[in-house]
Amino acid sequence: MKTREKTLFDDGATSAVESVSEFTRRVKTLLESGIRPGWVRGEISNLRAQASGHVYFSLKDAGAQLSAVLFRGDAARQSVKLRDGAQVVVYGEVSVYEARGQYQLIVRAVIEDGVGKLQREFEALKARLAAEGLFAAEKKRALPALPQTVGFITSPTGAAAQDFVRILKRRDWRGRVIILPAKVQGEGAAAEMIAMLKLAEELAIFDLLVIGRGGGSIEDLWAFNEELLVRAVAASAVPIISAVGHEIDFTLCDFAADVRAETPSAAAELISSEFVAGVERVERASETMHSALQDAVVRAAERLDHARSRLRLLSPDAQIEQGFLRLDDLSNRLWAALRSDVQTRQGQLADARAALARVSPETRVQLESHRLLSLWKRLQAASPASVLNRGFAIVRDEQGMPVQKKAAVRKGQRLVNQFADGEVRVTAD
Amino acid sequence: MPAPHRNVADVEAKESKLSFETALGKLETIVESMESGDVPLAELLAKFEEGSKLLKICEARLKDAELKIEQLKRLKDGKPALEKFETARDE
Question: What is the CATH number of the domain that holds B29?
């Protein structure tokens, strides 16, 4: 055969050609030494128990299948009864059966895979509900800072209720807690919790609900993954906290609730923290408000003081005072000006007087008055009075005119004779 | 003036029904607006007055609250009733 191949395909590749046995041996060596024994999860199908006591079956999941054999000796030691459709986890090693060119798993141990089944259901339901938007972040509501009435849907005899209440007490939370009793595991648990959710809604006294229980196995917590309860939690009219199991446990209620608390105790801590935060917010708001007002009042007082002092400068009183000052000033200046003016003029007057005195006509006045006196004496000597004094009389007519000729006198004319010592009225004959 | 009186009563009734969150939220908004510093004094006083009312509501809620723990029971006729919830001794 080799020679024929050589003649047909003279390509120098003859060294790569192996027999089926050789090739299969290589595969066997590779698989059996390269793949270490391990755990495999799957569903049993095509189960065939041979008369020899060996059991053959296939392990499958959605994407693949794997031949498996459980030899008589191993089969006798298993507690799990194998059946088609069973979800199992098996421990085994890979083996290649050269005669048929098959690889298969030599199973050494089989355990029932309840957890795996639940896990798958969980994942499937989670994916379905998530696709519906049941867990959407925008659906989540904030918890009330100060819930007056909190309803806790849980077992009244469980540790969760006691832990929850103890922590609220210890952290000095204040408000009303109502335990809404329901079975939290086993048959009918989900239905009881749904009924409590409904009742809580009907009572309409709750500001906040908590649903939960203490830790347990995945089966114990399973009620919190049941679709109807998950839907009821998501639809709760009241904000709701899911507090199921331990930190590591996640249930679908956790995703459906507004807030997931890791444990019932954590839920109580969350609620009391909100309370403390609320107290602090009130205190802070109060302080800020008062100081804002106080600051504003201080600022306003400062402005008022400033305005008042400016106003005082502008006030009528101040204006009058200013006026007085100005008046006094002006009057002082006026008097000073007047005084200096008067002095100046007095000086000028004195100067003029002196000058006048220097050219005084006194001597001439004396001279003239002597002349005047002699003239006056001569005038006196020549006056009619001096004639009268010497014993003559002056005859006057009725008009007082002097009568100097006899011809001017008519008979019966009234005349006045003037003497030095008086007058005598006469009538001419 | 009966109308304004009734209005005031209405407003107060409404305010006393405010939830703690709403009252606190409103209070915080008011305080924030007071903090800006350039609010006229008269307006500031009005805000302060409103803020004080809200503060009183919030403080009353905090002060009045007391811890009360009850358990819901079903009566024979199926109606729900409340009874004291027995708690373990608090160590």
Answer: 1.10.287
Parent domain of B83: 8-90
Tell me what the pLDDT averaged over chain A comes to. 87
DSSP A243-265: EESSTT---HHHHHSSEEESSHH
A67 exposure class (CB count in 10 Å sphere: 0-12, 13-18, 19+) = middle
Interface size between A and B, measured as CB pairs under 8 A: 115
Q: For residue A295, how many C-alpha atoms fall within 13 Å in the half-sphere facing its CB? A: 13
Q: Do A50 and A42 contact (CB within 8 A), yes or no?
A: no
Give the span between the Cα atoms of B20 and B28, in whole angstroms: 12
Mutate to test the interface with A, among B39, B47, B71, B79 (most CBs of A within 10 A): B71
**Residue B17, pLDDT score:** 63
The answer to whether A174 contacts B62, with C-beta atoms less than 8 Å apart, is yes
Q: Is B37 on the interface with A (CB under 8 A)?
A: yes
3-state SS track over A134-151: CCCHHHCCCCCCCCCEEE
Percent helix, strand, coil in chain B, to 5, is 60, 15, 25
Q: How does pLDDT run across B9-63, given as a tens digit for each residue?
A: 344 444 456 778 888 888 888 888 888 767 788 888 888 899 899 888 888 888 7
List C-alpha distances in Å: A183 to A221, A239, A327.
Answer: 11, 21, 103
Structure tokens, A51: 């008369």
d(CA A130, CA A125) in angstroms, rounded, equals 8
Give the CATH number, domain containing residue A211: 3.40.50.2300
Q: pLDDT at position A14, please?
A: 56
- A-chain residue closest to B26, CA distance: A285
pLDDT for res A225:
92
Structural domain containing residue A43: 19-115
Question: How many independent structural domains does chain B possess?
Answer: 1
In a domain, A140, yes or no: yes
Whether the CB of B39 is below 8 Å from some CB of chain A: the reply is yes
**Integer Cα distance of A89 and A40 in angstroms:** 5
Torsion of CA A163, A164, A169, A170, to 10 degrees: 60
Question: What does chain B come to in residues?
Answer: 91
Residues 6+ apart with CB under 8 A from A2: A14, A17
Q: What is the mean pLDDT of residues A371-384?
A: 85
ipTM comes to 0.71
B78 vs A418 pLDDT, higher one: A418
Residues of chain A contacting residue B70, judged by C-beta atoms under 8 Å apart: 176-179
Tally of domains within chain A: 2
Tell me if chain A has a CB within 8 Å of the CB of B41. Answer: yes
- Residue B3 inside a domain? The answer is no
Q: Please report which confidence band the pLDDT of residue A1 belongs to, taking 50, 70 and 90 as the band edges.
A: very low
